[in-house]
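Per reviewer request, we include the raw input and output of the structure prediction for the construct analysed in the revised manuscript.
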Amino acid sequence: MDLVKGRAVVKFGGADLSSGENIRKAAEMVVKSGYWEIAVVVSAMGKTTDDLIETMSQIGEVSDREYADTVSMGERTSARLFASALRAQGAPATYLEPSMEGWPIITDSNYREAKPDMEETSTRVRRFLEPLLGKTIPVVCGFLGIDKAGSVTTLGRGGSDTTAVLLGNCLRAEEVILVKDTRGVMSADPKVVPDAKPLESLSIQEMLALAQGGAKIVKAEALTYKLPEQKLRIVSFSKGLRSPETEITGDLHSSSFEIRERQRLAAISLLSEINSENLSALFSRLKEKPIYGVSTGAGSVTVFTSLEGAKEILKDLHGLGLFKAVSSREGVGMIELMHPVFINSPGWTAKLSGALASRNVNVIEITTNRSSINIFVDESQLDYAIKAVRDAIET
């Protein structure tokens, strides 16, 4: 599927729309952007969503459906204001909100954390949104969807990112631009680390790891919709849409699970307090050896690494006098299972461990992140374990 050159989806966050002056500046950026076709996604102004949620918490318990309908008012207001700001600058503009017949984003009925129906959304984007491009500037409410019954749903906090990248996918846009109140993606939170630096580029896997670790730059679920050759850029509101800032490269798209295996690993286990001194001593002794997994327990830590040289490392660690006891288990195999479905779907770890247990495969350890699961087993059972995992993911 070819991308459409000169077509972009631009998303403005709440901080960028916190005042009428900011909305005017944002609209000016869009008008002067130079893209042939452009669609805009907007969040609620400032802290509107937080204020609405706080008010609801004070009035008493509300249903999930009432919650979604109420918090949607922030984005609905922003869309109207942004379209007005574009028209004030002489640009044709049309806002789209969930009550309209041409609303494109269809989801399930999980009102607080809805998941888009890609097939239905793609169909509606082609039917209602794409024909507007080049004739007018569509301004779409971020964060929102409707279910098949027409009720308003929300895509979860940070869901405007999801809206933007999802629409970029369905429109085959050349670029998706997420406008933030920071200088792109920073090496750390500048509120915590004053000398944090902006990063020119990140792989999508690196961005996913940052999102998993608590960075609130891009919602992790949004990354799953990025197309392989599509540009995804995070730019600063103060620098404009054409500023370089940070580009997210690569994609998470895969039509099947990716499974890799590793053999001849060792599990080095230490009994000790889990503190910085002991962990530093452990990792410094590993030097340049690869680390495939780390797990901690009550007074213990285990590192999975290559088998070569493991006995010498164990002797070295024991000689430090920092650890109550040390051990090394040889003959460990690893299954690395990757798929972006893990980001949105809980329960996979339990499903896989259950499948292995039913086949009497002894699991040494399971480590996870948002898009991959690593399973460590006895090497002699590795082939059998891989078959069990394949059977589990195909059912």
